[in-house]
Design goal:
Blueprint lengths: L2 H4 L1 H24 L3 H12 L5 H8 L3 H13 L3 E5 L7 E5 L1 H24 L2 H17 L4
Antiparallel strand pairs: 1-2
Helix pairs in contact: 2-6, 3-6, 4-5
Length: 143
């Protein structure tokens, strides 16, 4: 059997789409942000002095998309931009208190999504899927 015979690409697309939609609904209900915006908040929380450029690189987004997303998160009161003390041309991102609260509210939402994944697959299948997805990610890293 080949990936084409098994319709692997189609199945990956369908699973990713449904997972994304379900996660976005739960995350939006919990904290008023999308999963992509939640990823930005998590990176800002975990990396002191995070910049739009560094976050865009980590998420594989172009800088214009990141600029728009940071603008939306700032408008929502979740992020603030501050000048970098070393390089005045660079803006660092920081969570506001409201951003911290939104990020904290995301834990249960992502927990529910992870529970649905765990319910669908036994532990051996989870390990195999994790390994397979890591290998696929690496195989297409140049894309």
């Amino acid at each position: 059997m080949t990936p084409s015979d098994l319709r692997i690409y189609h199945r990956l697309q369908m699973a990713a789409h449904r997972l994304q939609k379900a996660a976005d609904r739960r995350v939006m209900a919990a904290a008023g942000v999308t999963t992509a915006q939640a990823a930005v908040l998590a990176i800002v929380k975990g990396q002191e002095g995070a910049t739009q450029r560094s976050i865009a690189r980590q998420l594989g987004l172009n800088e214009s998309a990141m600029t728009a997303m940071v603008g939306r998160l700032s408008t929502l009161g979740l992020l603030v931009r501050t000048r970098d003390p070393v390089d005045g041309r660079t803006w660092n991102l920081e969570l506001t208190a409201q951003g911290e609260a939104a990020l904290a509210a995301l834990g249960p939402a992502f927990g529910q999504i992870n529970s649905r994944i765990s319910d669908a697959l036994d532990p051996a299948a989870l390990l195999a899927l994790s390994d397979a997805l890591a290998r696929l990610t690496e195989a297409f890293d140049d894309a």
